[in-house]
Structures are given as C-alpha cells and as structure tokens.
Amino acid sequence: QVQLVESGGGWVQAGGSLRLSCRPSRTTFSIVTMGWFRQVQGKPREFVARIDIDGSTNYTDSVKDRFRISRNKARDTVNLQMDSLKPEDTAVYYCLIKSRVRDYWGPGTQVTVSS
User: Fold this and answer.
1) How much helix, strand and coil, in percent to the nearest 5, is found in the chain?
2) Which residues of the chain are under the pLDDT cut of 70?
C-alpha cells in the first residue's frame, strides 16, 4: 500500500525559512503532478504550489516569490522551499501526488510562524 511521507515542518520566526519534502513509500504508479496544499483550522484546504511532469510550476499569489517548489525525479520527491515566512503562512501543509489513476495525500505537517 502506497503512503506519502512528509518532513520538514516545524516552528520558525517571521522571516525565516523551512523546506518541506514529500515522497511516496513505493513507486508503483505513474506520477503526473506533485504539489502542496495547506489548511488552517476551520477553513477550507487551499492550493499552495504544484509542479507538473514537464517541470512547469504554479503558485498561489500569496506565496509567489517566497516559495519555490521542486522535484527530484529520481527519488519521486517533491520539495517546497519556503523563505520569508509570515505568520499567515501558519497552517498544516499537505502533500498531494496525482497519478494517472488516483490521488494520494500526505498526512500533513505543521508549519508555525511566529510574529
């Protein structure tokens, strides 16, 4: 059974940086898109960033120029480099990997940014 493994969350002061990573436990499916979402308690989960198989990327406006998504294709690992973090970035971050058949969600990792 495929599970997603996330790492890199934690606590940081405003202006600091964190790097999130996500990988599947097994590569038994064809990956189409990899990305990150985040969710604050009581609010809908929102899109943060994605990277497609051709390397193209997309970001939500609130993180553009501060976050950068990348992929290590050999390891099927997706990373999210988060710089200049703001308190409003505080949320649980979820990895999403889309295959040609179904979607896989990570368990979520907490990112807390203090003012």
Assistant:
1) 5, 55, 40
2) 28
